Amino acid sequence: MAFARVFAFVLLVLTAPVLARADAAAPEAFIHALADRALGLVTDKAADMEAKRARFDELLSDTFDMEGIGRFLLGRYWRLATPEEREAYLKAFKESIVYTYTARFDEYAGQKLVVDGSREDGQFTLVGSRIVDPNGNADVKVEWRLIRQGDDYRVVDVVIEGVSMSVTQRQEYASVIQSNGGEVKALIKALNERMARLKSSGS
């Protein structure tokens, strides 16, 4: 599956209202609450884009293990990066997600997320779900990989039709770094340039 198509499905996952069982377990309820918050954000006509970006940033902090994901995406280059590069990378990584996804909020078209159940897999909890399209297109299978942090959960990966978003993004980041002499600062520059383009486009 092409990365652009996977990206589009993740956007739908984050904004689709959830159809969950009344007896949903805690991990399933966590996904339910995450999607409800995202949908409320996307459909809020009173909020301007700046406010939506701030709320989406908060949503990511509350429900995703952003530092853990960021470290995984950088792979072996995390160990090679200086403390300053790590800090700059994590900042650019999160901001690029915020700007990229909020710029595409208007792509939501009434899809729903059905939560099918959850299971334990070592240190992770996997929540199975599927996107149901109102136009009758085939369901899209989505699996959420969660870890426990204190009394709550955090998302560490989203797997769509067998394609891991974290692995896909890690490969893209590695390609950028490898094409620039193994320099992490090249990835930071690329992320910041992507944000600059989105800002200049008025997104």
UniProtKB/TrEMBL annotation:
<feature type="signal peptide">
    <location>
        <begin position="1"/>
        <end position="20"/>
    </location>
</feature>
<protein>
    <submittedName>
        <fullName>ABC transporter substrate-binding protein</fullName>
    </submittedName>
</protein>
<dbReference type="InterPro" id="IPR008869">
    <property type="entry name" value="MlaC/ttg2D"/>
</dbReference>
<dbReference type="InterPro" id="IPR042245">
    <property type="entry name" value="Tgt2/MlaC_sf"/>
</dbReference>
<keyword id="KW-0732">Signal</keyword>
<dbReference type="Pfam" id="PF05494">
    <property type="entry name" value="MlaC"/>
</dbReference>
